[in-house]
Design a protein that fits this description.
It is built from three helices and two strands, in the order αββαα. By secondary structure, the protein is mainly alpha-helical. The chain has a domain of 71 residues.
Amino acid sequence: MSEGARREQVERTVGPQEVRAEKEATQEEAEHFTGGPGVVATKSQARGATGGIVAGALLGALVGFLIGALMFEGARSIIITTVAIAVAGGVFGAVAGGIGRSMKKLERTDADV
């Protein structure tokens, strides 16, 4: 070792306030993301997507029923059309709801700065 280097270890004590602040910061960062493996969404995106799924599926079911009743004959064709368009509406609603919710949050954050 060089002459200027100390041989004893330097020990730093961390107070409970610092530990608590670090845990809170880590917890806050973890709360901003939800989802399983490969799916990452902020809380606001997840909330918007949940609302979008419900609204999109209901609207899609209504539109699907109307299209099925007008274009096809028989209950089976109407049910298939209703379900297919309800699923498509739910997917569209989830994507649109997640994007719309995050855009609202961005606009609010930009105005606050």
